[in-house]
Structures are given as structure tokens and as C-alpha cells.
Amino acid sequence: MDTTTASNWRDQLHPETRQLLLNDIMTKLKIGHPLCDYDEDLEFQKIAHSIEQKSYGGATNQADYFDEIASRLLLLEKAREREWRSQLRPDSRQRIVNKIRETLRRHLPVSGPEGSQELWKIARRFEEKIFAAVSSQTDYLRKISLEMLTMETIYQGRHEPANPGFGMQQFLAFTNNSNAMDSS
Fold first, then answer.
1. What secondary structure does DSSP assign to 89-118, as a single string?
2. Is the dihedral of CA 110, 112, 117, 118 positive or negative?
3. How far is C-alpha 135 from the chain's CA centre?
4. pLDDT tens across 18-65, in order?
């Protein structure tokens, strides 16, 4: 590449392009914070300007500049993905496990404390697999809802399976297959 072209890339970059990128960075930063107050908005503006300035200053050409911004936004996104799990209240997860267990109890024949304890373990593992596999709280809730709906659909109109063990085996096969499909 010609050194004149490489050194002139900043002169050839329109200010409107930088502003559009800055707006895009702000939009991405505000994901999950739709109604932020004035102070939060200022903080997001500072972060966005910092990302844009560091990318602009460190880039050797326009493509490098765009790549730098994309890389920095990807790092922020990955940090946000890790962050959502710690912000989810433990009692929320427990309520979901309880809901899964109630659904299982309605559709699978169990008796005694051992059967009830087994349903609780299955519900807990089911929730933990989904919790570990998804990348956001929205995805977590969507996936739980979808799996619960699928479970209800499988057993819809069915009061008791002919073979008491068949319902449990079918559910376990379903959960293993749905998790295997999601990881591929």
C-alpha cells in the first residue's frame, strides 16, 4: 500500500462517518438500559467517545479503524453476557425450577418422597443446562418458556402414560436431545 494513502486515510474519513459510528456505539452501549437518566447517558457518551477515539488514534487505516471499533464492542458484549448471570436473583431461578417440577409432576407419574426428590433433581439439572448454555437473560427466559411449552405440548391430552416409566424416559430423552441440538 502507498504510504501517502495510508497516512491520508484519516483526512479522507468524513466526520459524518465518525458520528454515525459514535451513534452506533452509543446504541450498543444502551442495550439493556432503554430508559437511562441524564448521568447514565453522559457516562455512555464518555465510554462511546473513548472507544471511538482510541480506535481512531490506534488504527493504521480505515479498515483497521472499523475492526478496532468492532473488537472493542465485541469485548463489551462478552462482558455483558457474563454480567447478566450475576444480576439474576437466585429466587427467580428457584421459582423457575419449581415451575418445571410442577409441570413434570402433572405429566409424569411419581410416588413418595423419592419420586418427588427425583423430579426436583431433574428440574434443577434442566434449568442449570439452559442457564449455562444461553447468552442473555432474554435468551434464558425464552428458552425456558419454549422448553416448557414443548413439554406441555408433548403431554397435551394425555392423562397417564400406559407404562409409568415411559413418560419419565421420554422426558429425559427430550431434554437430552433438545440440549444436544442447541449446542451444535
1. -HHHHHHHHHHHHHHHHHHS---HHHHHHH
2. negative
3. 2
4. 999 999 998 888 876 666 677 888 888 999 999 999 999 999 999 999
Using an 8 Å Cβ cutoff, are 65 and 74 in contact?
Answer: no
Alpha helices in 30-184 (DSSP H): 38-58, 62-87, 90-107, 112-133, 137-155, 164-183
Rounded Cα gap, residues 184 and 180, in angstroms: 7
In order of 43, 118, 125, 176, the CA distances from 109 in angstroms are 55, 11, 19, 20
CB neighbour class for 151 (10 Å; exposed up to 12, middle 13-18, buried from 19): buried
Other C-beta atoms lying within 10 Å of the C-beta of residue 76:
16
Q: How confident is the model at residue 180 (pLDDT cuts 50, 70, 90)?
A: very low
Are 72 and 93 in contact, with CB atoms under 8 Å apart?
A: no
- Rounded CA separation 129/32 (Å): 24
From start to end of 28-181, where are the E strands? none
Q: Quick check: 32 and 25 in contact, CB under 8 A?
A: no
Let me know: does 84 contact 137? Beta carbons within 8 Å: yes
Among 26, 56, 31, CA closest to 42:
26
